Amino acid sequence: MDLSAVFFILGALIGSFLNVCIVRLPRERSVVFPSSHCVHCLKPIAWYDNIPLISWLALRGKCRHCKAAFSFRYFLVELLTALVFWYFYRHFGLTPLLGPYLFMVSCFIVATFVDFAERIIPDEVSVGGMWAGIGFSILIPQLHPVKPVDAAFGGFLAGALVLICLVLTWIYPLFCKHLLMEQTPEDDRSIKIWVVISLLLISLINLCVYQLPPGLRPHALSFSAALSGYLIGGGLIYAMGLMGDIIFKKESMGGGDVKLMALVGAFMGWQLAVLTFFLAPFFGAVYGIVEKIRTKDSTIAYGPFLILGALMSLFWGQEIIRFILAGGFSF
Description:
The protein is mainly α. It folds into 2 domains: 4-94, no CATH class; 127-319, no CATH class. The protein is built from 10 helices and no strands. α4 (98-118) packs across α9 (255-295). The chain is globular. The mean pLDDT is 88.
């Protein structure tokens, strides 16, 4: 039985909820209460005026009561989410990977629209998504089907990158005393605690993996790979931001991008997170040049380009990596 239409409808329904998240999360408002209402006349929207895609078209994008225009973004997000759910189902099928990846791409959609509009990525999306990715990795080992040696290598790289970040953090005040670090002392301390705990867990899993029952080993290794992925994904952007601050003497990378890349690493592993890190600048550079010419502003929302790089890595990452390892283009 082909469930494509079911996933299209499911995507439209989820897209309606994502619209609520896009509007309310940047304003730190509940996504549950109050119920959907017109932002102009504040009257509740009836269920028959809240049917994804259909209601917007039937009402011609206007409130039934005050006739104020609703943003086209509502329809666009519902349609985009519906198409994305349809495509992910067609690509992955009813496999254990489908649920985690649909959750991940839902986070991507919210992060993209919020970042373009507000230049922020809500922690509910990035940090919450990161923890969800780690949780999925424990429950669904197919998310990171790694061998013990690969898990150990990922842990080694994560530890090395954390050490580099610590060195850059120590150097940072020597060059950037005029810049304020984004994290508060409490946030900074909690991040360091979680980084240390993650490295200890990775080391413990890698040391004891062969002592675990065979049925638990894939779950433990997947958990280790997700921890390495979030450390390497977030650590790469964090290190790049620190180096950019030191070189250019101004803030060059937002904390939201660091957390977003941690989400990518938790769901997709450190290899695809690294590939995402190198793909994103190609898309961001083109957009940045256009925006520089159009608005004279060199600051861009970088999160959407990290997401574009992550999606390319998800679908074509292994082919790109094999192409690079084979020598790339021949001249």
